[in-house]
Amino acid sequence: MNNTLNRRSFFQAAGALVGAAVVVPVLAKAEGRRGGAKAAGGSLKLVDPKDPQAKAVNYVHVNTEIKDKALTGDRAGVKHKDQKCNNCIFYQQGQETTVDGKKAAPCQMPFAAGKVVAAAGWCSSWAKKG
Q1: Is 114 exposed, middle or buried (0-12, 13-18, 19+ CB in 10 A)?
Q2: What pLDDT is recorded for position 56?
Q3: CA 94 distance to own-chain centroid
Q4: Do both 91 and 56 map to the same domain?
Q5: Other residues' Cβ atoms within 10 Å of the Cβ of residue 123
Q6: This prediction's pTM
Q7: What is the rounded distance in angstroms from the CA atom of residue 84 to the CA atom of residue 119?
Q8: Confidence of residue 3 (pLDDT cuts 50, 70, 90)
Q9: What is the CATH number of the domain that holds 41?
Q10: Same structural domain for residues 49 and 78?
Q11: Are residues 21 and 66 in the same domain?
Q12: How far apart are the first and last CA of the chain?
């Protein structure tokens, strides 16, 4: 058996090492965004409606707090008063818990990455759960 490292084997190994060094941190960051409803301290944290990303989608903790009447129309045959995060397709009902006295769960929308949204909340990304 020949245990010498030739030039081709060296460059193959070096390429694999560099590739892993680039891919592993990216995957770790994506995993943190995907499943991480827990903050650094391990406790769940609600999305702050004042956060720029939350503001961009008009997120509020209670759907009746929407000020812009243009956003309060019916969608998919559902009246605005009945449009809440807990009946949205992006709300992860199976992971629902209580945070700061509100029922809440992770949302699949990017503005909520690593946090949870209030069950009674609303955002302009609301879509009727099938």
Answers
A1: middle
A2: 96
A3: 15
A4: yes
A5: 26
A6: 0.68
A7: 7
A8: low
A9: 4.10.490.10
A10: yes
A11: no
A12: 61
Residues 130, 78 within the same domain: yes
Residue 102 shares a structural domain with residue 120: yes
Nearest in space to 107 (alpha carbons), one of 123, 130, 91: 91
Contact 114, 36 (CB under 8 A): yes
From residue 11, give the alpha-carbon distance in Å to each of 5, 19, 20, 23, 40. Answer: 10, 12, 14, 18, 39
Q: Which domain holds residue 73?
A: 37-130
The maximal CA–CA distance of the chain, rounded, in angstroms, is 77
pLDDT (0 to 100) of residue 41: 40
Query: For 29-55, what is the mean pLDDT?
Result: 72
Residue 105 backbone dihedrals phi, psi, to 5 degrees: -155, 165
Q: At 84, is the secondary structure helix, strand, or coil?
A: coil
Is residue 127 within 8 Å of 86, Cβ to Cβ?
A: no
Is residue 121 within 8 Å of 62, Cβ to Cβ?
A: yes
The helix/strand/coil state of 129 is coil
Q: Is residue 89 classed as helix, strand or coil in its secondary structure?
A: coil
Structure tokens at 56: 């961009």
Residue among 129, 130, 60 nearest 91 (CA): 129
Please tell me whether residues 43 and 13 are part of one structural domain: no
